[in-house]
Specification:
The structure holds two protein chains of two kinds.
Chain A (H helix, E strand, L loop, with lengths): L7 H5 L9 H23 L4 H12 L2 H25 L8 H18 L4 H30 L3 H19 L6 E3 L6 E3 L25 H17 L1 H11 L1 H6 L4 H18 L2 H8 L10 H11 L4 H21 L7 H38 L12
Antiparallel strand pairs in A: 1-2
Chain B lengths: L2 H7 L3 E10 L2 E11 L4 E5 L6 H8 L7 E6 L2 E3 L4 H6 L2 E4 L11 H6 L5 E2 L3 E2 L1 H14 L15 H14 L4 E5 L7 H16 L3 E5 L3 H7 L2 E6 L2 E6 L6 H9 L17 E11 L5 E11 L3 E5 L6 H9 L5 E6 L2 E2 L5 H6 L2 E4 L3 H5 L6 H6 L9 E2 L2 E2 L1 H14 L16 H12 L6 E5 L7 H16 L3 E5 L3 H7 L2 E6 L2 E6 L6 H8 L7
Parallel strand pairs in B: 3-10, 3-11, 6-9, 9-10, 15-22, 15-23, 18-21, 21-22
Antiparallel strand pairs in B: 1-2, 1-4, 4-5, 7-8, 11-12, 13-14, 13-16, 16-17, 19-20, 23-24
The chains are: A mainly alpha, B alpha/beta.
The complex binds adenosine-5'-triphosphate and magnesium ion (MG).
Keywords (chain A): Cell membrane, Membrane, Transmembrane, Transmembrane helix
Subcellular location (chain A): Cell membrane
Membrane topology (chain A): Multi-pass membrane protein
Chain lengths: ~375, ~500
């Protein structure tokens, strides 16, 4: 490991590994640090920190809250994976947000318009969502490959365009209908054959966990296997590490950019599925925005690692869930936003600190071994 | 001792008891070194001996675990290179660090931008200062040239100028001559003498012992992380130096019994490469390489060799025809060419040869990601790749604590050995060897030459490009000279001296 000479960005994006327990130390340190900062903020605003955190923890541990947390986390996990696919190749897909919203809208409309037997109906909606997400992302990919436009710029623009396009499509003359019992409009509800039943797996509550939580798990496994065990994943990571070396090794970098961007977009297309097929059955204006950005934060938090991202998503979701209790206690729920922001920042700092600690610790260990009479193997011989 | 004597003999740099450990390796152990003011002080030692590490410590890039650094008599602690720069120490690295798409002026001021009234960049003053430094030391540098248009020799001078611009009085040069042909080396040494005459002190690292003997005022030999001798260049021979370094004799690249066959392995027909602004960089080059033949190309760097190689590898669009065996591969992708059996030792190992932040066994896969033992179908075969990496480490004597360390943790020469080992794997039919022994010590050089000879005897065709004329003359069966993108002469390697070849390369004595 070459932590001593690695760049800050490499350490930030998890390209330099930490060994053993240290890989746990960093996120813990970050959470403790974020807790301290939040406590200070709470103190300043005149709320007792321990008590506040206690309230949140207690509320978060209730069965109903656990279900909510799992459901949020499912969505966040997919968002973070979509972002992480790009990150591993040094592609910054800021457009996950737009890709997700457009995909959810079109998939909902298509799903509402047809009636097919159960599994087929569901599969079709999911495929449409992935295709639309990938299609929207492909614009940025093509712009980058053909015209050299930075994907950061193009995806930000495409987010804005997706918003207007969404608003234009979600009109009663086009894809929308009036939602019964409200003055909201949305797509025509998806028939029962296209719905994914929830699972009442948490004892003590009737609330159901999204059936598509399984989809999120499958996506995580595919992400891991694809990147670490396949030739394609090797090429993708090689391109992320050094484009010039990848070219010399025979990787077609332009093709890789397109494929990675399409995959990222397809994963983005899945983000809206748990909610669409599991509870709302129709896309309306109250679908959450900004999930793409949450995904970026969680991908950073989880170091682009499928398990790390799962923990990040759960933590994020837990904070979101338990923020709703704060109002009852006359504490501003915005405190949670501050917490989430601080966690991301702390993660950046904590990883840096732990990396530095690892370097010195390892040197100390080597010198101790040497002093202890273990025969030193000089100039690079194995030790 | 008298006052005056003490002050003039205060060493410019004194390192005492320096120790530096990396995971699994002691890079420097209790090293002591004293460099006199106004000296050219050479440091020699085999690959991985700890030379670069020691210099990075002196330049503040690495912190020593133990030991003391004194500059001009006073103890210092460097937390970063800027501390070292403030103390008048500058370093030119083993691997160049200039930005290609900027001008010399921009590169030089990068990081120490001149300010006018605190805000606006003051390029006028900077330009004058660069001109002045260039004239004082005879560096001959145009501040407005683009770096990408400069040859390696000129780039090197820009690196030196950059360091002088920051006010360095003590200059560290890590393997400055590895990329230079003899004439450029002479020029560089002329520059160095000029600098020394102005009272600067120079520490430099090299594996080329003849050069070391010709330019150094003092030599320190490092072996296995520690100083084993300080010698006076007047009192030793290159052979004795090599023995001090590695305990073995100087190798020679001689290969006289020919193994050339009649079967053409690679045929290059009228290949031309143009730059984006339509300049002709490679101009209608043609040659054949037969099985068992080493074709050497001699030339000052920057005369189209790199572009020619990239054209053959399919990394750069080119006109003309390239035929491998029976097949026209001109339209093939890089991957397909590699799969057809082309091995590639690139001239710039950091840009084209390695994933620095990946472990050695992943680097084994690079460039061979579709072939055994690295993959099974679409899957990476970890076991196979790891086992084969161990084989390379063993056979090519790559000094490393293990195959799970990142490539960046290896010394420059050991990185090179890994690449050579990888590219010779999987029975290539044709090998492009650009500076195959660049940066490796004399012992490892001999080993690499042996490997090349053995492969050639087994029918490998080799395109050899090198700045080391002894290597070119000694290994090549056929030798061609390239100048401004054109093959300008055929030379008989049996009857040519390095001097004759050198002048042919600059176009002085056509067809030596
Ligand atoms: N950042 C690092 N992390 C771990 N080990 C390192 C690091 N840098 C150097 N080393 C190890 O320290 C030893 C000395 O390396 P160094 O680069 O100083 O050798 P060198 O004498 O310059 O060799 P060369 O002639 O090949 O350039 C080597 O065994 C190398 O593997
Ligand atoms: Mg070195």
């Amino acid at each position: 490991m070459n932590a001593a000479e690695s760049s800050f960005a490499d350490r930030l994006l998890g390209r330099v590994r930490l060994s053993g327990l240290l890989s746990l130390a960093a996120p813990l340190l970050a959470i403790v640090f974020a807790g301290v900062v939040t406590s200070i903020v709470l103190l300043i605003s005149g709320d007792p920190p321990l008590e506040t955190l206690g309230i949140m923890a207690e509320y978060g541990a209730q069965p109903r809250s656990i279900v909510l947390t799992l459901n949020y986390a499912t969505t966040y996990y997919l968002a973070a994976i979509a972002v992480a696919i790009g990150f591993r190749m040094n592609l910054f897909n800021i457009g996950v947000d737009g890709q997700y919203r457009l995909a959810a809208l079109v998939a909902a409309a298509v799903g509402g318009a047809v009636a097919l037997p159960g599994p087929l109906h569901i599969a079709m909606i999911i495929v449409v969502a992935m295709l639309v997400g990938a299609g929207w992302a492909s614009i940025a990919a093509l712009l980058k490959v053909k015209r050299g436009v930075s994907e950061v710029i193009s995806t930000i623009m495409l987010n804005a365009i997706a918003t207007s396009l969404g608003a234009w499509l979600l009109n009663k003359e086009r894809l929308a209908v009036e939602v019964a019992g409200s003055n909201n409009i949305g797509t025509k509800p998806i028939a029962e054959s296209g719905q994914v039943p929830g699972m009442a797996i948490i004892p003590g509550t009737e609330a159901k966990v999204f059936g598509l939580i399984i989809l999120a798990i499958v996506v995580g496994v595919i992400y891991h296997v694809l990147l670490n065990r396949t030739r394609f994943g090797f090429d993708l990571r090689a391109t992320g590490r050094s484009e010039t070396a990848a070219v010399a090794s025979g990787v077609n970098v332009k093709r890789m950019i397109i494929v990675a961007m399409l995959l990222s977009g397809a994963a983005a297309g899945l983000i809206g599925m748990p909610q669409l097929l599991g509870s709302s059955y129709s896309y309306s204006l109250d679908f959450p925005t900004g999930l793409g950005f949450t995904g970026i934060a969680i991908a950073l938090l989880g170091r682009n690692h499928p398990v790390g991202i799962a923990f990040g998503a759960l933590l994020w979701a837990f904070l979101d869930t338990s923020s709703s209790i704060l109002q009852l206690h006359e504490i501003s729920p915005e405190i949670v936003l501050i917490m989430q922001g601080t966690i991301v920042l702390s993660v950046v700092i904590a990883y840096e600190l732990v990396h530095r600690y690892q370097i010195t610790a390892e040197q100390r260990r080597v010198s101790k071994e040497l002093a202890g009479g273990a025969s030193p193997r000089p100039e690079g011989a194995s030790a | 001792m008298e006052e005056a004597v003490i002050s003039t003999s205060t060493p410019a740099v004194e390192l005492a008891g320096i120790t530096k450990r990396f995971p699994g390796v002691v890079a420097n152990r209790d090293i002591s070194l004293s460099v006199r003011q106004g000296h050219v002080h050479a440091i020699v030692g085999e690959n991985g001996a700890g030379k670069s590490t020691l210099m990075k410590i002196l330049y503040g890039m690495q912190r020593p675990d133990e030991g003391e650094i004194r500059v001009n008599g006073s103890a210092v602690t460097f937390r970063s290179p800027s501390d070292a720069i403030a103390a008048g120490i500058g370093m030119v690295h083993q691997h160049f660090m200039l930005a290609d798409n900027l001008t010399v002026l921009e590169n030089v001021v990068l990081g120490s931008e001149p300010r006018k009234g605190g805000i606006a960049l003051d390029f006028g003053t900077a330009r004058r200062k660069i001109k002045q430094i260039s004239d004082t030391y005879g560096l001959g540098i145009d501040p407005d040239a683009m770096v990408e248009d400069l040859g390696v020799g000129a780039r090197q001078r820009v690196e030196i100028l950059k360091v002088l611009y920051r006010g360095a009085r003590i200059l560290i040069l890590d393997e400055p001559t590895a990329v230079l042909v003899p004439q450029e080396v002479d020029e560089l040494f002329g520059n160095l003498r000029e600098l020394v005459r102005e009272g600067l002190t120079i520490i430099f690292i090299s594996h080329k012992l003849d050069e070391v003997l010709s330019v150094a005022d003092a030599i320190t030999v490092i072996r296995r992380g520690t100083t084993v001798a300080s010698v006076d260049p007047k009192g030793v021979t290159a052979r004795q130096l090599a023995e001090l370094m590695v305990g073995s004799e100087l190798p020679s690249p001689e290969t006289r019994e020919s193994t050339v066959t009649d079967v053409v392995a690679l045929s290059v027909r009228k290949v031309s490469v143009h730059s984006p602004d339509e300049r002709c960089i490679v101009d209608g080059v043609s040659f054949d390489i037969r099985k068992g033949e080493v074709l050497g190309i001699a030339g000052v760097e920057g005369n189209g060799q790199a572009e020619l190689v990239e054209a053959i590898m399919g990394m750069r669009p080119a006109d003309g025809q390239i035929v491998l065996g029976e097949q026209d591969i001109s339209a093939w992708s890089t991957l397909r060419r590699r799969e057809a059996g082309i091995g590639y030792i690139p001239e710039d190992r950091h840009r084209h040869g390695l994933l620095l932040e990946a472990p050695l066994w992943e680097n084994r896969i690079l460039g061979h990601q579709t072939r055994k033992p690295n993959v099974k179908g679409p899957w990476i075969d970890r076991g196979g790749a790891r086992a084969d990496t161990r084989r390379i480490v063993e056979e090519y004597d790559v000094r490393t604590p293990g195959i799970d360390v990142d490539a960046a943790a290896l010394s420059g020469g050991n990185q090179q050995k890994l690449i050579v080992g990888r590219e010779m794997s999987g029975d290539p039919v044709f090998l492009i060897a650009s500076h195959p022994t660049r940066g490796v010590d004399v012992g490892a050089q001999a080993a690499i030459w042996d490997h090349l000879r053995a492969a050639r005897a087994a029918g490998l065709a080799v395109l050899l490009i090198s700045a080391d004329l002894d290597e070119l003359i000694g290994l090549s069966d056929t030798l061609k000279v390239i100048l401004r993108g054109r093959i300008v002469a055929d030379v008989d390697p049996q009857n040519v001296t390095p001097e004759q070849l050198g002048s042919a390369m600059t176009g002085a004595g056509e067809a030596a």
